[in-house]
Task: structure prediction
Amino acid sequence: MPFINDVHDPLVARTCVLMLDAVELLHRRGFHQVRALPYMAPSGMHWRCEVSVEDQDQDTGETREVRYSMADGPVLAGLQIEKTTTTAQAADALHRALGAPSPHASDPTYTRWYTDLLAACREHRALPVAFSDSWEPLPGWEIGWNSGIIQPPSPV
Result:
């Protein structure tokens, strides 16, 4: 794992892909400061992903983020994922959960890198992995855990 074909529950696989695609859609909507950080749990059993924005919540001072683990099942930011759930619905759920990030911060370098990352993920039908606590750091992000397919690291 995390090759999509290895995920036993199709709705969990769909949730993972929707989360990544929703971040890309938020970028296209102008929310360039939204970031995704996918990684493997220390056990190696679950893919996880944190979606956050660079600015902090003005009321609490905390980082605004949504955390997902395959162990959570087909629920993303409070949205129950079904076969018919669209990327736009997932993006809207993330947008609400992140507290409506500002569309004014432009970062075309990151958004281009992210689009290229997802293109590689689609080509290999695999989820990206930025790191895992169970192995040495890699020179970039791996497409499919233990695949050896390395993409350049995030520019941020």
